[in-house]
Design brief:
By secondary structure, the protein is mainly α. The protein has one domain. The protein is built from 3 helices and no strands. The protein has helices spanning 5-19, 23-51, 54-62. Helix 1 (5-19) runs antiparallel to helix 2 and helix 2 crosses helix 3 (54-62). The longest helix has 29 residues, at 23-51. It is elongated, with a radius of gyration of 15 Å. It starts with a helix and ends with a helix.
Length: 66
């Protein structure tokens, strides 16, 4: 598994989609994957902003956001 928790969750969701045939479950899991992708984009934006400001990067890291 990846060290990135979001990547790990994505891998797990994708594997469950492959293991089930239930259309309703697929819909819910794909919806969860979309929310996850949005979260990954937000984290990426935070990382880019923090890279320009080391103090902010330290604070976000201490809070567990990075």
């Amino acid at each position: 598994m990846s060290e990135d928790p979001l990547e790990t969750v994505q891998t797990l969701l994708e594997s469950v989609i492959e293991e089930t045939d239930d259309a309703e479950v697929h819909y819910k899991l794909r919806s969860a994957l979309q929310v996850l992708e949005a979260s990954k984009e937000e984290v990426s934006t935070l990382r880019e902003a923090a890279a320009e400001h080391p103090e902010l990067e330290d604070r976000l890291s201490d809070l567990g956001y990075l």
